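Dear Dr. L.,

I hope this message finds you well. Following up on our conversation about the binding site, I have prepared a predicted three-dimensional model of the protein together with adenosine-3'-5'-diphosphate. For your records, I am including the exact sequence and ligand specification that went into the calculation, followed by the structure tokens. Please feel free to forward this to your student if that is useful.
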Amino acid sequence: MSVLRSGGPGSFTEQEDRVKMSQQLYLFEGIKMNPLFTSKEDLHRARDEFLVRDDDVIILTYPRSGTHWMIEILSLITSKGDPSWVQSVPSFLRSPWIENGTMMKALEEQDGPRLMTSHLPIHLFPKSYFTSNAKVIYVVRNPRDVLTSLYYLAKENKLWKQDSFDEYFNRFIQGDVIYGLWFDHILGWMERSDKKSFLVVFYEELQRDIRGSVEKICQFLGKNLEPEELDSVLHNSSFSVMKENKMVNSSLINQGFSAYTKAPILRQGISEDWKNHFTVAQSEAFDKLFREKLSHLGPRLFPWP
Ligand code: A3P
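The resulting structure of the complex is given below.
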């Protein structure tokens, strides 16, 4: 905690200074990035130097797909349902982000099995991962809800342009948003979906059957939970409990992740809010794009059309 929060090299104070110097998102190999969270140097170091270990567990997501929900679930599985860890340690210290220089350093210094998080597209991901036995959980959400959720995050962020929903829709479908085009992220990572060490988890499936989903995740990780431990994982990772947990949903977290935003990480926690935002024309345009980009992956891969 102190490494990240006290001033000095690599601290959030230093990152905030960096942002004051550069108030703009920037492009790295065609992908838009947040200078507060990730510098160009961090991206080079993450891809070329960061060493993924065989016993690492990595949460991968496109932003607003349920990253923090998965961090909470995996933290609670690790602590066998005991909530004291998730109640006392911020999520970004329980599962640090690879693409943030300070957190990458903390990960490098950590002994034992590590839990870590990333939004990086496959071509920017640490090269060492591809020859490791590390386990990845890739959380995927209906991109229409991702777009809607991201719009509310962007709206509150002083670094990002304050677009109308219509403008934001157009930027999202062109990939002119942080971490690039959703379709590219999915196409890149889904290539690995048949690997034994790569588990795809849908946000909507977590909502539909959280007990079955957590059991599947435990099986993937080779973890056994007693029934009361499993109950505690489910209770403490529920939307209502997470929303009250300052270690996941507070200004403390926002300072670390996307300073200058007032948007909560836990907003509504429902599916199909996009239907309250998309016009008929936008819905049709999105369906067409979805078919063009992803239909070759085969029918019924995703739990939404
Ligand atoms: P909404 O903005 O649609 O509410 P991420 O952690 O990747 O940034 O994703 C944030 C989204 O996941 C937000 O979506 C947030 O509300 C939702 N979320 C977080 N925890 C959740 C939970 N326990 N149950 C359901 N949704 C959750």
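In brief: The domain at 12-297 is CATH 3.40.50.300 (Rossmann fold).

With kind regards,
A. P.
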